[in-house]
Amino acid sequence: MSSERIPMSRLLHISASPRGEASESLALAGAFLDAYRETHGDPVGNHDLVDHHDLWDGTLPEFGPAAAAAKMAVFAGNEPTGEQADAWRAARRVFDRFDSYDRYLFSVPMWNTNVPYILKQFIDVVSQPGWVFSFDPDKGYTGLLSGKKAAVLYTSAVYGEGRPPAFGADHQMPFLDGWLRWAGITDISTVAFRPNLATADAETGRRTAHAEARELGKRF
Questions:
Q1: Of 65, 68, 119, 211, most Cβ neighbours within 10 A?
Q2: How many contiguous H segments (helices) and E segments (strands) does the chain have?
């Protein structure tokens, strides 16, 4: 774990949409964060209170052959060397930033019934032995990110609970919720906005989701 801990009132927003102002998930995050800042006495958007990790900003390292070999070396009790060590250090920098916060906001659109691949890449980068989890041959995995909390804002354009199978399935929420719990984060709050593009008007659902996001931001 990193040695320095950012104060508990600070929050890291991890966004997985590349669509900017056209993004429903980023709009929901804006509603949440406005309320969060007001509640914590920061209506002007002080970066000391909220940090934004845009997963599309080009800084996320790949987790390829060298990084995978480094992970297996660590599992075996060895120190990565050479390009493996470089890949391990790059992954560690991402983890240290993530681990230095105790509150997280994830804004997550649905892509092909699941999360965007960039979010899976982030998860693969930070989910390392001794960082996110420990493993015991008899007891299995133990999540190491205890004492943290997460708010997750889910959006989808076609899938929605109760719609026929032809409208898709939800592998988005079970995947991210499962990873958070596996990593040791069990205090999880969610808001979902799932309009059906086959309908003419999604505004009612949008207003409801934004109100829920603002309320969650106030009490988070």
A1: 119
A2: 6, 7
Query: Are 152 and 188 a contacting pair, CB within 8 Å?
Result: yes
Q: What are phi and psi of 119, to 5 degrees?
A: -70, -40
3-state secondary structure of 178: helix
- Angle, CA of 110, 111 and 115, to the nearest 5°: 65
Cα(50)–Cα(53) distance, integer angstroms: 10
Asked if residues 18 and 59 have their Cβ atoms less than 8 Å apart, the reply is no
Long-range pairs, 206-214, Cβ under 8 A, ≥24: 206/24, 209/28, 210/27, 210/28, 210/31, 213/28, 213/29, 213/31, 213/32, 213/35, 213/153, 214/31, 214/32, 214/34, 214/35
Summarize the chain as % helix, strand, coil (round to 5).
40, 20, 40
Distance CA 22, CA 27 (A): 8
pLDDT by residue for the chain (220 residues), tens digit each?
444 444 446 899 999 999 999 999 999 999 999 999 999 876 565 556 899 999 999 999 999 999 999 999 998 899 999 999 999 999 999 999 999 999 999 999 999 999 999 999 999 999 999 999 999 999 999 999 999 999 999 999 888 888 888 888 999 999 999 999 999 999 999 999 998 776 667 888 899 999 999 999 999 9
Amino acid 62 reads E
